[in-house]
């Protein structure tokens, strides 16, 4: 029996450091790097409709609507590619364009829900491939879809969704983040000069444990030239108090680990709390 409505969720991803890798196809293009899959992401609710209508809603912790956006080119693209029309409403609480991997989360949650709604028989691999190719084509991301196929803090050995990914779960405490504003991901990923600096700043080793990811990410943020003055200020303050912290790639913001991070970050703006996710995109509801 085909459902009339399906809801799916996908975690977000905070990238700590990355290096672009160009392949012969969008599927073979992506990034190597490391980051944290987080339990705050995107929920997508899809219902049958003769016309595609896409609405993005961002809500605060109390459920109050903070932002509404009509349309999402990357979601329109994948729906056209699948040859389906539907009403899509996505919801998130983290700010969009701020380095939380929400474009990837929106793609994976929407594709997962559409797959069930229309009984498309897509495998998880097919879904991830469609999402990854859209990210690469629109320059909205490189490694987030690969990371969000599961949970944990992750080290990705290569580009695309089939490269080796190491998932670890020793970061068991709370994560906190602030955003000073978005960074236009496509502009950075489309800049050869920026990508050269990113490659030159790429760490020479991988993190030995969760907290070590923050140290390597911090060095990367500064050496790549991506760290803004406000990000540097907050990261420095966290370091003086031995709080692991770094820049949310690619967003003008900071993420930090441990209960002591909240009182430092809240001096600079609204603080978002999350934890390491333990799984990737999944269906969370459907109605007959
Ligand atoms: N929650 C969402 N729902 C639908 N589309 C989204 C969502 N978040 C991002 N997108 C789409 O992806 C595009 C790029 O987002 P991006 O800057 O990569 O965000 P992030 O840094 O959080 O991944 C946005 O302009 C929007 O079209
Ligand atoms: C850092 C980034 C290239 C972009 O991340 P976002 O802006 O969150 O889409 C990510 O996709 C990665 O490959 O690590």
TrEMBL record:
GO terms for biological process: coenzyme A biosynthetic process. One of its GO terms (molecular function) is kinase activity. Transmembrane segments: none annotated. Its EC number is 2.7.1.169. Keywords: ATP-binding, Coenzyme A biosynthesis, Kinase, Nucleotide-binding, Transferase. It catalyses: (R)-pantoate + ATP = (R)-4-phosphopantoate + ADP + H(+). Residues 76-151 form the GHMP kinase N-terminal domain. Belongs to the GHMP kinase family. PoK subfamily. This is Pantoate kinase.
């Amino acid at each position: 029996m085909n459902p009339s409505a399906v809801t799916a969720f996908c975690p977000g991803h905070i990238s700590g450091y990355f290096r672009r890798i160009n392949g012969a196809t969008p599927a073979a293009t992506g990034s190597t790097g490391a980051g944290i899959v987080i339990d705050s992401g995107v929920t997508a609710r899809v219902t049958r409709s003769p016309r595609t209508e896409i609405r993005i809603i961002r809500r605060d912790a109390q459920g109050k609507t903070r932002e509404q956006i009509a349309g999402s080119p990357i979601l329109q693209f994948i729906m056209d590619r699948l040859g389906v029309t539907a009403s899509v409403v996505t919801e998130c609480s983290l700010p969009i364009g701020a380095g939380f991997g929400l474009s990837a989360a929106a793609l994976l949650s929407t594709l997962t829900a559409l797959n069930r709604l229309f009984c498309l028989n897509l495998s998880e691999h097919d879904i991830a491939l469609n999402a990854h190719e859209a990210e690469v084509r629109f320059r909205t991301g490189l490694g987030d879809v690969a990371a969000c196929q599961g949970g944990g803090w992750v080290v990705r050995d290569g580009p695309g969704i089939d490269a080796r990914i190491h998932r670890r779960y020793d970061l068991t405490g709370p994560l906190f983040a602030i955003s000073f504003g978005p960074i236009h991901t496509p502009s950075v990923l489309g800049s050869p000069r920026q990508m050269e600096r990113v490659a030159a700043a790429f760490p020479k080793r991988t993190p030995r444990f969760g907290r070590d990811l923050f140290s390597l990410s911090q060095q990367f943020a500064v050496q790549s030239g991506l760290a803004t003055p406000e990000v540097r200020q907050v990261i420095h303050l966290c370091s003086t108090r031995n709080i692991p912290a770094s820049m949310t790639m690619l967003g003008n913001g900071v993420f930090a680990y441990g209960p002591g991070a909240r009182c430092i970050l809240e001096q600079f703006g609204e603080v978002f709390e999350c934890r390491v996710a333990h799984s990737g995109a999944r269906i969370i509801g459907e109605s007959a």
